[in-house]
Amino acid sequence: MSNVKTILITGSDLAAEAVELLQDYQLIYAGRQPQEADLIALCERHNPQAIIVRYGKINGRIMDAAPALCVISKHGSGIDVIDQQAAAERQIAVRAAVGANAAAVSEHAWALILAYAKSVPQLDRRMRDGHWDKAQHKSLELEGRTLGLVVWVPSAAAWRASVRPSICRCWPTIPMRKPCRLAVKRLNHWMSCTAVPMWCRCTVR
Hints:
By secondary structure, the chain is an alpha/beta fold.
């Protein structure tokens, strides 16, 4: 019997760098959109010691199908797709790659902000419907404007590195324990901003 430990990936691939790091493990890929029944079957067949979650959800039934399971890791930062209570009851550790995708998220946030400023979705739909609004449309110029940002702290550095400091004001997410006092204190800052995108972690820990 092989002593090689097994990792189940709820996806069809991993980056080459990750595969190299895990070269001492047997990697089992569940495919692009694995369903609960698929994951249970793979767990029963391979009894993985770890699960890397890319897509889909991990619940107690899936955990029970893998008696050797020790850790479940999210390929990203949001662990809401993992039943954390079920994992705790089974003494299975839950981890996340916090900050690993900060650059990608910051670039995506910029794409959405620019799409909003230039009305890209609306103009795209109008043009596909046969309209040409060049004479009527006035786009928003970001040069010289102030952009307020509610951002989760690990992603703030990536965001500030991608913009000129003169056009970006970046504050950490307001702690939930004392939101009112801090919100009032910072209201004068927000009032001077052209736009205030909300970019916060939604997972409760």
